[in-house]
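Sanity check. The docking grid for hypoxanthine depends on where the pocket ends up, so I'm generating a full predicted complex first rather than guessing from homology. Inputs follow.
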Amino acid sequence: MINIDAQNHVKGKSIYLDDIPEVNGTLHCLPFYAETAHAHITGIDLQDAKQLPGIKTVLLAGDIPGENQIGSIIPDEPLFAAHEIHYWGQPIGLIIGISEQVCRRARKLIKVSYDELPVITCPREAQKQNQLIIPPRKFTLGNVAQAWEACTHIIEGSTDINGQEHLYIETQGAYAWPKEDGSLYVASSTQGPTAVQRAIAAVLNLPMHKIEVNVVRLGGGFGGKEDQATMWAVMAALAARHLNKPVKISLHRMDDMCMTGKRHPYTADFKIGLTDNLKIMAYEVTHFQNAGASADLSTSVLERTLFHSTNAYYIPNVEATAWCCKTNLPPNTAFRGFGGPQGKFVIEAAIVKAAEKIGISPDDIQKANLVTDGNEFPYGQIVQDARAKQSWQECTSIYNLDRVKQEVEAFNLANKSYKKGYAVQPVCFGISFTNTMMNHARALVHIYQDGSVVVSTGAVEMGQGVNTKMLQIVHDIFGINTEKIRIESTNTLRIANTSPTAASAGADLNGKALEMACNTLRKRLTEVAQRHFDANEVAFRDGNIFSSDKSQQISWEKLVIMAFQQRVALSEHAHYVTPVIHYDKSKEKGHPFAYHVYGAAILQVTVDCLKGTYQFDSVRIVHDSGNSMNLTVDNGQIEGGLVQGIGWMTLEEVVYSKQGKLISNALSTYKVPDIYAVPKEIDIRHLDTIGPDLAIKKSKAVGEPPLMYGLGAYFAIRKAVKAFNPYAELTIDAPYTPEKVLMDLYKKH
Ligand code: MTE
Ligand code: HPA
Ligand code: MOS
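Predicted complex below; grid placement will be based on this.
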């Protein structure tokens, strides 16, 4: 089954936020923001802006009726800066006018004066100055201090990993309009409708029941709208309430890039110890996370960096420390992988450095240390149903790693100005929100008298195909044609207290709730049919209901109307809670994940050693999707995640000036992979497994894990560079842009 949105997307018929027909009298709003990264505000001159024809008003912190606060985990983020500026792009106030254009003109007329303060953009510097969002966290397993003795090889080093711009195609936006009794309807492009509802209620000093948030779909979120869609919706709601008019906000791309946080850059120190037979005995790592100016989701992201610090490897002695460092950058936020990819990059860098020092191939070390059932992750969860070795085995045999190695070697011998490289990239990613409390969801199903069905869940469709999966669930339980089923928008009046659609858990959590609701309804309908047929067993198939001996049959529509006439409830609301999981932060031990997703990829690249450019010849993946419920959707997620991961590791470079100003603030200066940057060949095979019960229909979560195959892109390029320039000392700092590749190709030793 193809994605149910595919046709309308291609035809341009899908409705995004900016496509909502405007209500008569709609106003537009535009924030104005700090043009310095750290300062005291000494004056704000709004006079000229306010007098511009078409401008209705300009709102500041003092105009907020409730709290000037939108921080979700830690209340450290004002909606509008009142006294002190903490990052370049921080909103100070909101301009409201009859059009976006007039707001833009007014923005140029606003003068803010500042007393400048020192700017910190580097997490190590912040850590030295004790600028921390929370105290450091540490995961330990075994005894690292004692383990070094048993190691033949001990390698130390450090790495830098840059951030990443989400670049959702639809920029941030919201549209709010007042209803009759002081309540508000808010259309928002958010992954977290409840987060938006809660923040609007707090800022406007209203009870949550007065705020209705509706989400039809997102033109991409990738984590960038998990927490950071809130601010814009709150602004639109504030303006709507202040003027009692519908108000819309839709960010220009450059404002979006300047004002929003990105994937967290990290810098890390590591020390890794191996035995003679390449067993990793000890691993010590310290992560310095660049959180930006306020917490946002950084503390949770930090946690996932620790959870994934050993990737798919079993290491008996681990000490992993992570610092959440406060800097004068926009608050960094969730991005596909949620800190996991950064944690994994460091262990992969450590393995590559160790391999280079020992004089072997990194895959020899990777292969020798893959997790297996009964091993313990550093956070205490015991490995169950591990697929790391199986993925590796199938990947390297189906795609013949030995032949890849021989071909690369032969090519490099025969060619001077082109070199090839390869890398194998295993992935192990835990599924569940690391914050156990967030792992629950709800679904609401109505069957109407004509037999048509409408479904609401807490899941937000952002291109990942969750609505298609929800539709399949209903179809399979009721056995009716998909045209009879409609997946409605995500709405806080229909589904309350949602967790954001995130952590790749959207389909599992909401799908399980939906399954429960549908099963309850089917049970009720079954009883009606049993009485009608006077039979014990009935089956729902192809729009009909059959008695078990197939002697009797009625249509779904007929059964529904019979149930209605017998006063049987045709609506159901269900609540699902992930069982088994728990975590004790005071001990940093527990069982935080419902299950893990595994896989392995072989990436091969050709580097042009005159230009420093590169092209990926192939990426070949064996992925553990359990018993995939939709291979079309899942393969789309794998391809998309992979290319997004490759982009992060190669072309995409977020650059801030020393003063904290975003330099790469447009698509002319921030390069994302285009169709030419996509590997020439992407081959995906799925492991033939039955899948875990905690996954929806035993079909494992797929949203984030494939991004991490992209990590191998860095190391494949490095291998090619080393073939050209074998003796230079090369750092391991991502991304490996063509400029950096060129510098490394000609680096002196
Ligand atoms: N795929 C598309 N097309 N667009 C997106 O914004 N977000 C990713 C992933 N795949 C995203 C996507 C992220 S960050 C997550 S957490 C998951 O989808 C969320 O959806 P799921 O929980 O339904 O997998
Ligand atoms: N993953 C993604 N998003 C989240 C998480 C998580 O573990 N926790 C809170 N938001
Ligand atoms: Mo995804 S980063 O969990 O929204």
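Relevant for the grid: The CA atoms of residues 56 and 97 lie 5 Å apart.
Also worth noting: The pocket of dioxothiomolybdenum(VI) ion (ligand 3) is lined by residues 191, 223, 226, 334-336, 338, 502-503, 704 (CB under 6 Å).
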